[in-house]
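Annotators were shown the component list below and the corresponding predicted structure, then asked to write short factual statements about the assembly.
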Amino acid sequence: MNDIERMIADIDMEVAATRELTGRDSLDDRVMQAMRKVPRDKFVPRDLRRFAFDNGPLPIGHQQTISQPYIVALMTDLLQPEKNKTILEIGTGSGYQAAVLSLLVKKVYTLEFVAALSEQAARRFRELHYDNIECRTGNGYLGWPEHAPYDGIIITAAATHIPETLVQQLKPEGRMVLPVGMPFSHQELLLLERDRHGNTQVTDILGVAFVPMLGEEQLPGR
Ligand code: SAH
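Structure shown to annotators:
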């Protein structure tokens, strides 16, 4: 089995092990195909490449991490990506999650708080020809109003609460997937769905461990 197929098998195994929590026996085939296609080794630091296809998070510098492949696959599946959709990601990090999404949707906008990470990701997107991703440095708490509303929003750092500004940038019938909880302690992965009237429903998916969302103290009125 090659490295990528081993990673895919590990994701499938974890999906099966968590089926009681997530209500899913397997993830969408299209999502798993996208996971096969994106070369995760190109998104991790050179000295960690030999671990690139392990089903675990890895450090990417600036005290940040590239998420675990199983979590990337699960969050992507929860967003229900479709070819006509536009997605906003908060927390570009390595760019890996955005690359996976870019194969499944029309356009991905991704915001990163740490300028050096954003610039590195922009370079990767160019070199690897992920041409439907636009990234910039910014504070995800404010969203990216110029391109709103979005069909889906994914946050890959843990906020202490559901950011209302981002809910406002979600279309009716849009989906938002995000971890919420205290820094480095108990966090839950949530799925927020807006109905066609704009009302929201939140479903708790499972316990997770993400790096904290930064920049709350920079918000206007703080
Ligand atoms: N999706 C990433 C995972 C990155 S970890 C990947 O596939 O590699 C979370 C990222 O969120 C970090 O890079 C961190 O710098 C960023 N982040 C934290 N707070 C943020 C904020 N308020 N706005 C935008 N990005 C933020």
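Statements collected:
1. The mean pLDDT is 96.
2. The helical segments are 3-17, 19-22, 29-37, 69-78, 96-102, 115-127, 164-168.
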